[in-house]
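User: Could you go from structure to sequence for me? I need the amino acid at each position, not a summary. Structure tokens:
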């Protein structure tokens, strides 16, 4: 099977799925979409970390005499 034919078929199937009617209050997503959105958000806004993790990173940075650029 030709790769271009395969890609075209997958594009058609994705469009078909995305044009379906979602359940009430839901949305239709394709596997991987959420990960792409989260990665884009983290690249723009940074990676969220909990307060205890941030504290540990800052303590380690201080121990290594690195400039604190997180806080």
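Assistant: Here is the amino acid at each position, in order:
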């Amino acid at each position: 099977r030709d790769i271009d034919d395969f890609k075209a078929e997958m594009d058609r199937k994705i469009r078909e799925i995305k044009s379906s009617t979602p359940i009430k209050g839901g949305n239709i997503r394709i596997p991987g979409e959420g990960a792409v959105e989260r990665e884009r958000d983290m690249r723009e806004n940074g990676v969220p970390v909990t307060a205890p993790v941030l504290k540990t990173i800052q303590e380690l940075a201080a121990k290594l005499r690195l400039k604190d650029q997180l806080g």
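One structural detail worth keeping in mind: The chain has three helices and no strands.
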